[in-house]
Amino acid sequence: MHTIEKAQSTISDSALIAALNKLLNRESVLSEAEDLAPYECDGLSAYRAVPLVVALPETIEQVQDILALCYQHQVPVVARGAGTGLSGGALPHEQGVLLSLAKFKDIIELNPKQRTAKVQPGVRNLAISQAADKYGLYYAPDPSSQIACTIGGNVAENSGGVHCLKYGLTVHNIQQLKIVTIEGELLTIGGSGLDSPGYDLLALMTGSEGMLGVIVEVTVKLLPKPERAQVLLAAFDDIVKAGEAVGNIIAAGIIPAGLEMMDKLAIKAAEDFVHAGYPLDAEAILLCELDGTEEEVSEHVLRVREVLKDSGATDVRTAKDEAERLNFWAGRKAAFPAVGRISPDYYCMDGTIPRKKLPQVLKIMAELSDEYNLPVANVFHAGDGNLHPLILYDANVPGELERTEEFGGKILELCVEVGGTITGEHGVGMEKINQMCVQFNSLELQQFHAVKAAFDAQGLLNPGKAVPTLHRCAEFGAMHVHKGELPFPELERF
Amino acid sequence: MNTDISQQLQEQIQRADKEATPLRIVGGNSKAFYGCTSQLKDAETLSLAEHQGVLSYEPTELVITARAGTPLHVIEKLLADNGQMLPFEPPAYADSATIGGTIACNFSGPRRAYTGAARDFLLGCKLINGRGEILSFGGEVMKNVAGYDVSRLMAGAMGTLGVLLEVSLKVLPVPEMESTQLFQCSSIEALDKLHAWSQTPLPISASSFHQSILRVRLSGADKAVHAAMQTIGGENQADAEHYWQQLKEQQLDFFTDAQPLWRISLASDADIPELTENNCLFEWGGALRWLKSDSDNQSFGDNIQQTAAKFDGHASLFRADDKTSGHQSSRFQPLTPGLLRIHKNLKQAFDPDNILNPGRLYADI
After folding, report:
1. Could you report the per-residue pLDDT of A79-95, keeping only the tens digit for each?
2. Chain A residues lying within 8 Å of B85, measured CB to CB
3. Which H helix or E strand runs over B30?
4. How many CB atoms lie within 10 A of CB B337?
């Protein structure tokens, strides 16, 4: 369900394509319907649009030329990495250029001394860790799409993963960016030191969802691989007790590398799918990973085991070997596709809440689930309060997607109400644009628009995403008053 | 103390905006030496000192929210009472230092290279922009990607984009134990050791080198620290806590003479003698160099900044008394034209009438 404003391009479609063909070789400019189809959506396949043209540059100079061309003729530009994003951030603009960074695949330099990797934006997240492995180093942020997602997209979305509580998000793990502005100017942000003079543009660019500039090079920080990682699996007969256990572990002064929770429906789906050895009779499980030196992990495993037992865990297991540790994680990492097996479709939400609000949020979500008659499986980055409720639905049932979206919107609004946020790591994109009106007031949204204008006054980069217009919020507000009737045009089906 | 003067602050800013008169933003006035104040000599003061109070602190959520004028030591004491700390180990430089000033300067101490900077732990803030609007960004949760990261943009902006009213910070448990090992070696050996160790999972939490002495602090679980002491060797330093405190607060002899002090942040492996020997002290595994110089003229400053740039870093004149400092258009490394343009545009976006701390960071913003 999306509406994007019409562009005011000053160049005809054919002239634009011809101009791009002059800048790139012909195979790198796609404008035939069958070539454009793969680009019509990202990981949020419910939202689709066919771009006017796809450009696949190979050099920074080409990116500069394309952006300068678009700037000159007021053509919208949407940058795209691997297209694994879950919020429609890379949804194309029908009158615009879809700028794919897929050809920027080189790891430019690994510097073990400085513990950095300088890479092109199209390098896959996991490929960085694989390349750094020979030095005993790795790149910490590990979104579950890490096999496929690229670092440029990670920076644009400020991606997280299961190890954020201890190791931070993308913003904590990058050191330098090269970006191209909409005018075509190449800027270097950050440096080889641990800080840079002036404003923290590195932070501002991270998570800016392609609205401020196009990322053409990223220098990430690497960390030494921990000597040892161990995981504990605890079962609970009450999900509230599992939530309390999380607080108790932290109160004991231990920051686990990963702390994940799954509810009964998610446990069952995952267990049926990958046979991770999860207890099927539990209402919730916690996976607690501890990493560090041998001694530190040994000491913390003992203490966490005690805390979990004291918190009412019905069973606590420690992975007996590396194979079992990976198996415990396999269930969690496969949770989304596992849910995909038991339902024709699912819709993944991404709110974050203060952890102490978990019982309240779970209770209201269960009530909403009954009200909308749609089951919810809960997967939860428990350590940092990031919820991923998965709403199970069937897109072939008329009206069910609309109901799902409304239900999802309610969950996000609930997250804001309890002091959290509508998105912890997936980004606003097109998907949560209306909920931005709930999280921010009009002065704050205007400030965001002013920030955007500091980089892109004409609004050509990824138009219509991330920050709603005040007009849109007024409409959304009105919609809330007359709830139920969604004033959006018919949605394309998948 | 628990006082909310945001309305009063807002009115003062709105008035200043209307009259287009600059404001000099002051918390505890502990960092008056920092940045360039030449444009603020006759400016009206906007004082945050009374805007105090911890608004929420949940040890199990690892989050604290406080008004900007809350003294740093009040926050540190409250956290310590609960076995927690500000992970970026900020210097105070005076008892009056506030949390708002600390974040506005993005000041971080010895632990920075190993756990992160002030900006890394900033989760959200409430601010007043140059139009006198009270705005909130970020929040009190660890993961939040809704909207641009305006909170982090405030860290290090020195008030030039907005006046911080409240900040929310992530905190961490105090390590179970800390111990410091000491080595006699050359600067090259020190850098080599630090780089070799940094590639292994040792629980290092601070490092410094000056005049042939390398110090390395280890933090963590008791057994882990003892094992690491065995691994890296060296001799144990007595009263190490005092040493790191003095380093952080710049009370070591190195810092206490009146010479102008340069701060150089650059690639940690830069090993040229002028940035390792004699008048230089380094920390952060080599990524931060403090350099004293009796020469304070423009060409010396330009020289240091060019050298820093060679190692992909930057240099700023951290402390110098006003009458001697010749490097006055800004004390910070000049920005490239492209970045300067973005900086000016952002200033315009937050403070269109240029009333908030004009010139404190750069002449034009």
Report:
1. 999 999 999 999 999 99
2. none
3. none
4. 9
pLDDT of A411-460, one tens digit each?
999 999 999 999 999 999 999 999 999 999 999 999 999 999 999 999 99
pLDDT of residue A144: 86
Q: Identify which has the larger pLDDT, A145 or B173.
A: B173
Whole-angstrom distance, CA of residue A67 vs CA of residue A59? 13
Which residues fall within 8 angstroms of residue A94, CB to CB, at 6 or more apart?
A4, A49, A50, A51, A52
Residues of chain B in contact with residue A467, where contact means CB-CB under 8 angstroms, are 147-148
* Rounded average pLDDT per 10-residue block, chain B, 365 residues: 96 97 97 93 96 96 97 98 98 98 98 98 98 97 96 98 98 97 97 97 97 97 95 96 98 91 95 84 97 79 92 94 61 96 98 97 93
* B337 shares contact with chain A (CB less than 8 Å): no
Mean pLDDT (chain A) is 93
In Å, what is the CA distance from A348 to each residue of A45, A88, A239, A411?
12, 12, 20, 11
In this complex, do B345 and A454 lie within 8 Å of one another by their Cβ atoms? yes
Task: Quote the tokens at residue A193.
Answer: 């030191």
Domain spanning B177-248: CATH 1.10.3470 = no
User: Considering only CB atoms, which chain A residues are within 8 Å of B203?
Assistant: 292-293, 296
Is residue A291 packed enough to be buried (19+ CB in 10 Å), middle (13-18) or exposed (0-12)?
buried
Is B142 in contact with A294 (Cβ distance < 8 A)?
no
Give which of B196, B335, B254 is closest to A136, Cα–Cα.
Answer: B196
- Is residue A351 a contact partner of residue A368, using CB atoms and an 8 Å limit? no
* Helix A60-73 vs helix A13-23: crossing angle, to nearest 10: 160
Render B42-86 in DSSP notation, one character per residue.
Answer: TPEEEE-TT-B-EEEEEGGGTEEEEETTSBHHHHHHHHHHTTEE-
- CA-based torsion, A478, B140, A214, A34: positive or negative: negative
CA distance B83 to chain A (A): 8
Residue A190 touches chain B, beta carbons under 8 Å: no
CA distance A416 to A363: 16
- CA B137/CA A137 separation, integer angstroms: 34
pLDDT of residue B322: 63
Inter-chain touch A224–B198, beta carbons under 8 Å: yes
Q: What is the pLDDT of residues A173-185, one digit of tens each?
A: 999 999 999 999 9
pLDDT at B321: 74
**Residue of chain A nearest B135, judged by CA positions:** A444
Residue A5 — very low, low, confident or very high, per pLDDT cuts 50/70/90? Answer: confident
| pLDDT for residue A396 | 92
Provide the pLDDT for residue A403.
95
- Inter-chain touch B226–A295, beta carbons under 8 Å: yes
Contact of B146 with chain A, judged by CB distance below 8 Å, is answered with yes
**Measured between CB atoms, does B94 come within 8 Å of chain A?**
no
Q: pTM, whole model, 2 decimals? A: 0.95
Determine how β-strand A284-292 pairs with β-strand A228-236: antiparallel
pLDDT value, residue A133: 98
Q: Does B83 touch chain A (CB under 8 A)?
A: yes
Which of B 257-296 lie inside 8 A of A, CB atoms?
A: 265-269, 284, 287-288
CB contact under 8 A, A194 and B288: yes
Given A185, A247, A467, which is nearest B147 (Cβ)?
Answer: A467
A134–chain B Cβ distance below 8 A for any pair: no
Over the stretch A416-429, which tens digit does the pLDDT of each residue have?
A: 999 999 999 999 99
Chain B residue with the nearest C-alpha to that of A253 = B173
Are B314 and A197 within 8 A, CB to CB? yes
B2-173 has which fold?
Answer: 3.30.465
State whether residue A413 sits within 8 Å of chain B by CB: no
